[in-house]
Amino acid sequence: MQFCLPKAEMSSMVKLSNVMKRETNMMSEIKQPKIKPGVCIPWEEQRKELPNITGDEEIFKRIWEDNEALAYMYIWQVLLSF
Amino acid sequence: MATDKEQLYQQRFKRYTTAMRKGKPDMIPIRPFVAEFTAKYAGYTCQQVAHDYRVAFEAACKCAADFDWDAVVANMVYVWTGLTQAIGLKYYGIPGLHIPKDTGFQYREPPEDNAFMQADEYEALAADPVGFLYNVWLPRVSTEISPAGRPTSYRNNLSFVKGGMAMLSYFTAFGPQIQRLRQESGTVSAIAGIFKAPFDIIADKLRGYLGLTMDLFERPKQVLKACEALMPHLLHVAISGADPSKSVPIGFWMHRGCVPFINREQFSQLYWPTLKPVILEIIRQGWQVLFYAEGKWASHLDAFAELPDAGIVLHVDQDNIFEVHKKVGHKFCLSGGIPNFMLAYETPDTVRDYCKRIIREVAFDGGYIADASAIMQNEASIENVRAMTETFREYGVY
């Protein structure tokens, strides 16, 4: 395993680090991602694949998202807890 | 109708939650994070408690019933290796399989040249964290799962069914376990929900610590961007599992953000800016966060002091708890600080003397919860844990 870097390479890294310092000396924001946390495949995407809904769309949406939450929870719990 | 155990539970609940909010309860609460210690005490092997969560639950209940503790984690041997085996996770050393049956389960850091995420994949992670985890990360960390676009397999399909069903079975069992602790021994469930810092997720499970340290020099902006992309998800997961009554804190397991793993600059430029906003949001929504600060965090106490009073409970591991108390004891409840080596190798008298010193110099005005420095595995001596418990009960009355 190599921990020592050539001088020139180290120097360019230090420069990068300085660039980083100037631009990030502040708190990050919690930005909402395109797909909201809690789902993997958004209802809007699934909706496009369904034929005309004659019943209550809200029920389909709610249950879809409830089940999505399980898939979402699964991968994040594997990552965080296991 | 309140039973004796229920009255005991209510007393302990009040004691524990009062101390966490920097108050002075009737006596110092005791909340030991006992993991493989429970196996040792209850007569099980590390393999038994790691691989069969029902045995781990049993051991936790036995300890809670026999020791006069106010709060415990319902199962501190949290990683059920039966589940990790069902999914095929590569990074665990399982007792009785990869390591001796009386050694606690181990996490195996990926080799630097074969990390679970490559250095050039930060953009992909940042663009779609959930998709990346399912399509790229999970197939790499599992022996069973086929990469996206490759032929699937019988074992691939079984991994998802077994993993999903096993996780549901495990998590569903916590409700009755928490009730059992309450009814059988009047013991409070100490925490609810899980949180980790974005930086730690990348270090622990994606790039590995060594890979990430190089990335901090070679591609710091990409690391920052990936951490930022993880923030809303980690917030969501933390709150999803939190106590609905907001009485007990969300557990925050802190790994690679302290000295000597990263320097102060890296902490202030990357670790803290992508952590603090999430903590503030959790606090704003009404929960406390238990900073389970494994290692030495004294260099960063000024940063923690930026958080609202009593917003967190700060658990002290390898720092000097007397110094930590001088610095932030006026703002936050502290816990821990009793060295694990002392509980393992010193005499009960030494343990008693140290606990008395903590009572005199740290806990005298409330806002302290008794516990070891780090999670107690099977090296902790039963006699010493008993001495710790008895000392706090005898001398810890306000």
Task: Please describe the structure with a list of short key phrases separated by commas or semicolons.
heterodimer, A: 82 residues, mainly alpha, 3 helices, 60% helix, B: 398 residues, alpha/beta, TIM Barrel, 18 helices, 52% helix, globular
Molecular structure report:
The complex is a heterodimer of chains A (82) and B (398). Chain A has helices spanning 7-24, 43-48, 57-81. Chain A is mainly α and 82 residues long. Chain A has a domain at 36-82. Chain B has 398 residues and is an alpha/beta fold. Chain B has one domain: Alpha-Beta Barrel (TIM Barrel). Chain B has helices at residues 4-20, 36-42, 46-51, 53-66, 81-87, 122-127, 129-141, 154-185, 198-206, 208-218, 220-240, 264-271, 276-284, 301-304, 321-328, 340-345, 348-361, 382-395; strands spanning 71-72, 92-93, 106-107, 188-189, 194-195, 250-254, 289-293, 312-316, 333-336, 368-369. Chain B has a six-stranded parallel beta sheet with strand order 5-6-7-8-9-10, sandwiched between helices. Chain B has a two-stranded parallel ribbon with strand order 1-4. Chain B has a two-stranded antiparallel sheet with strand order 2-3. In chain B, strand 7 (289-293), helix 14 (301-304) and strand 8 form a beta-alpha-beta unit. The longest helix of chain B is centred in the middle third of the chain and has 32 residues, at 154-185. Chain B is globular. Classes of the chains: A mainly alpha (82), B alpha/beta (398).
Describe the structure concisely.
The complex is a heterodimer of chains A (82) and B (398). Chain A has 82 residues and is an all-alpha fold.
- Ends of chain B: how far apart? 29 Å
Biggest interchain interface, per-side counts: A-B, 35 and 54 residues
* Computed CA radius of gyration of chain B, to the nearest angstrom: 21 Å
Q: Count of helical segments of chain B?
A: 18
Largest sheet of chain B: 6 strands, parallel
Overall mean confidence score, pLDDT of chain A: 81
Please state roughly what percent of the residues of chain A sit in beta strands, choosing from under 5%, 5-15%, 15-25%, 25-35%, 35-45% or over 45%.
under 5%
Overall pLDDT of chain B:
97
Number of helices of chain A: 3
